Amino acid sequence: MHSSPFFLTDVAGFLGGYYAFIAGMNGVFAYLLWQKYGQTGRALVWTVFAGAMMILASLALSGAAAWVPALPASSPLKPSASMHHTTASPWSVTSPRRRTRAWPFPTC
To answer: How is the chain split into domains, by residue range?
Structure first.
């Protein structure tokens, strides 16, 4: 699903950290259920979920495009060629001779 270079360079770090954080929270919750409330069955379910989130975190943080599933070619979520960023950003001025960065605030 996330095999584009943009994902691998910009989003993978945040998403992997987010998944690891969620896994840690679920692990702490499972520990509390087990130790404080004695609910072993529910604690086991939350531990399995925390493990699944850690697997997702490791896949996202690996940055290996081969391990991350790709969207099908006909998916409505897959960006088309017209959606790729090929023009200058709003913070830059493009001229035929050169490209310079514009200051977004008025100068005194």
So the answer is: 1-68
In this structure, how many other beta carbons lie within 10 angstroms of the beta carbon of residue 30?
22
Asked if residue 16 lies in contact with residue 58, where contact means CB atoms within 8 angstroms, the answer is yes
Q: Residue 24 is encoded by which pair of tokens?
A: 């840690």
Pairwise pLDDT comparison (22 vs 66), residue with the higher score: 22
In the chain, which ranges are E strands? Answer: 92-94, 99-101
Question: Can you read off the two tokens belonging to residue 58?
Answer: 């490791």
What is the three-class DSSP state of 100?
strand
Instruction: State how far Cα 3 lies from the chain centre.
Output: 11
Coil/strand/helix, residue 106:
coil
What the block records as the tokens of 44 is: 């086991």
Q: Do 27 and 53 touch, CB atoms closer than 8 A?
A: no
pTM, two decimal places: 0.57
Q: Helix count (H) and strand count (E) of the chain?
A: 3, 2
CA pair distance 66, 73, nearest whole angstrom: 16
